[in-house]
Design goal:
By secondary structure, the chain is mainly β. It contains one helix and 34 strands. It folds into two domains: about 290 residues, Beta-galactosidase, Chain A, domain 5, CATH 2.70.98; about 140 residues, Jelly Rolls, CATH 2.60.120.430. It has a ten-stranded antiparallel β-sheet with strand order 1-7-8-10-11-22-18-17-14-15, covered by helices on one side. A five-stranded antiparallel β-sheet has the order 5-13-20-19-16, with no helix packed on it. Strands 23, 25, 28, 31 and 34 form a five-stranded antiparallel β-sheet that branches.
């Protein structure tokens, strides 16, 4: 867990196909240190992290290491020919790693209570370890040429040496001046409650204090070499990266970019004093992808990302060399949620099979409505003159609503130029609903998110359902 926390205020994700790194067997078991004794009372100080136990891979551009005493997270990244490690290792909440978040809040287990400062983090598996600097359990690892694999039982960040009820796997491969990482998280919780979606760190990246310049392109003309946005603002800030990357650079203009295919929501923060510090110091620059995910008690989650080492030109050139993002909605809910999440409504849980099976009714009937939300997107409204919803509604209601957000909207706004209503048939039969947006007021400029909502919550009460198979900008087959 990083050294900050922001409560849930409102994104991919689902499963992605990976072809760049092969699945190779994990054949080298690793025995962690003896489990320490929990504190009897009060708030003990953090312990010193264990000595590094690094596995290195390198090529002509990059040198990288994971640390078996840090859950196998990346804790060393340097340009070839230098000895400067850019990754911050102040405690076991830093590094380059995966951290997940779910309910309940607070979360306690086996008689252990969370550290007061992190009381509302809830269920928070962290790849590297916990607040007390106990390292996560590495189950196995493999090193092959310029590839690494590691399998980890993470720890719950606010609890004292408590293994999380999930397993994380990471595959890492050097590709020129970039690092391709893919991650799989398998969850196995006894608590079967479906908690609200929360922002995940997929991944988080901590660099040392000299890396303090945050750069990305957040305009409406991506992939045209338009001027970027740069800031040294150190506040906890959400960023809208319309070229699918964000970077942290030093005074000389070199550093690391984080690229996620088809992903637009990022976060940046600065800690301590900018421009100074080494990997052991508290000062650091932070960036992350901020997926919003529903974490099922038995779910499986996969994502991949790239770290690009070098100059801003290197980072942007890498992003421009990748396939262009889809210019409109193409959500097919065959095996996963595709990054969709919910407010005041639930689906029937994992596994997702041939559509989202949603209870089209409010969880909390004291609240007026509910909605199904897409991940953050970047579409030009002119590229999406029509939208197709393939769904089966079983309800007394005769209409539903498509709502949307634009960059700068703090939430979905209940104003007439941010939604349109379309008729539905509530007999439970699968149909394709065509929504003509070409003449809808407000459907213009850039669209950054969409949602499906009821038009009158009273018409969607007990027993109402929605089976949502797809949301696309071309008519589905069948």
């Amino acid at each position: 867990m990083p050294r900050f926390y922001v409560p849930l205020v409102c994104t991919l994700v689902g499963f992605m196909a990976f072809t760049c790194v092969r699945d190779f067997p994990a054949t080298a078991p690793y025995s962690p240190a003896v489990k320490p004794t929990p504190p009897t009372g009060g708030l003990p100080p953090q312990e010193q992290p264990a000595a590094p136990k690094r596995l290195f891979i390198a090529n002509e551009k990059v040198r990288l290491a994971i640390d078996l005493n840090m859950g196998g997270a990346i804790n060393y990244l340097a340009e070839a020919g230098t000895s400067e490690n850019m990754v911050n290792n102040f405690d076991l909440g830093r590094q380059i790693q995966t951290a997940f978040y779910g309910g309940p809040y607070p979360y306690s287990v086996n008689g252990k209570q969370p550290v007061a400062a992190w009381l509302n983090l809830g269920w928070n598996p962290v790849q590297t370890g916990d607040y007390y600097n106990h390292p996560a359990r590495v189950l196995s690892y493999q090193q092959t040429g310029n590839q690494l694999y590691v399998k980890t039982i993470p720890l719950i960040w606010p609890l004292f040496d408590e293994p999380a009820d999930c397993v994380m796997e990471h595959w890492i491969e050097l590709q020129g001046n970039s690092v391709h990482v893919r991650c799989r998280v398998n969850v196995n919780r006894l608590d079967t409650t479906q908690y609200s979606a929360r922002g995940q760190e997929t991944p988080c990246v901590y660099l040392n204090g000299p890396y303090y310049r945050y750069v990305l392109y957040d305009g409406s003309q991506p992939f045209t070499n338009a001027p970027v946005t740069e800031t040294t603002d150190r506040e906890n800030t959400n960023r809208y990266g319309t070229e699918n990357w964000v970077a942290i650079l030093n005074e000389q203009g070199r550093g690391v970019g984080l690229y996620r295919p088809n992903v637009y929501r990022y976060k940046t923060i600065g800690f301590g004093t900018p421009k100074v510090g080494t990997e052991a110091d508290g000062s650091s620059g932070y960036m992350s992808n901020d997926d919003y995910l529903v974490i099922d008690h038995n779910g499986q989650y996969e994502y991949d990302y790239y770290l690009i080492v070098g100059s801003l030109s290197d980072i942007r050139q890498f992003a421009y060399s990748q396939p262009r993002p889809t210019p409109g909605p193409n959500f097919i809910f065959a095996k996963d949620r595709q990054g969709w999440y919910y407010n005041n409504v639930r689906d029937r849980g994992w596994p997702i099979q041939n559509g989202l099976d949603v209870r089209w009714e409010r969880i909390d009937t004291t609240k007026a409505d509910f909605r199904l939300m897409s991940p953050t997107v970047f579409w030009k409204a002119t590229d999406v003159p029509k939208l197709y919803v393939q769904a089966a509604f079983k309800t007394k209601g005769t209409s539903a609503r498509l709502s949307w957000r634009k960059p700068g909207d703090f939430d979905f706004l209940p104003v007439s130029d941010r939604y349109t209503t379309f008729p539905i048939i509530g007999d439970g039969q699968l149909r394709t609903y065509e929504i003509d947006l070409s003449r809808v007021g407000g459907w213009d400029g850039v669209i950054s998110q969409i949602s499906l909502d009821p038009t009158a919550a009273k018409d969607y009460e007990k027993g109402s359902t929605l089976r949502l198979q797809s949301v696309t900008f071309s008519r589905p087959n069948g």
